[in-house]
Amino acid sequence: MKTTRRLWLAAAVSAGLIASGSAQAEDVRIALVVKALGIGFFEAAAKGAEEAAAELGDVEIIYTGPTDTTAEGQIEVINSLIAQRVDAIAISANDPDALVPALKKAQDRGIKVISWDSGVGAEGRSLHLNPSSNPLIGNMIIKLAADHLPDGGEVAVLSATTTSTNQNIWIEEMNKVMGDYPGIEVVSTVYGDDLADKSYREAQGLMTSHPNLAAIIAPTSVGIVAAAQAVSDAGKAGEVNVTGLGLPSEMAGHIESGASKSFAIWNPIDLGYSATMIAYELVKGAEATAGGTISMGRMGELTLDDALEGAMADPFVYDASNIDDFKDIF
Amino acid sequence: MNEPVVNESVQRMIPQRSQGSFRRLAGSWETLLIFIAVAIFFINVQASPYFLDPWNLSDATFNFTEKAMIAFAMALLIVSGEIDLSVASIIALASTAMGFALQLGADTPLLVLVGLGTGLLCGAFNGLLVASLGLPSIVVTIGTLSLFRGIAYIVLGDQAYSGYPDSFAFFGQGYVWWVITFEMVLFAVAALVFGLLLHRTGFGRAVYAIGNNPTAALFSGIRVPRVKFLLFLMTGVMAGVAAVCLTSRLGSTRPSIAFGWELEIVTMVVLGGVNILGGAGTIPGVVLAAIIMGMVTFGFGLLNVPGIVMSIFIGLLLILVIALPKVLAAAAARLK
Question: Would A17 be classed as within a structural domain?
Answer without folding.
Answer: no
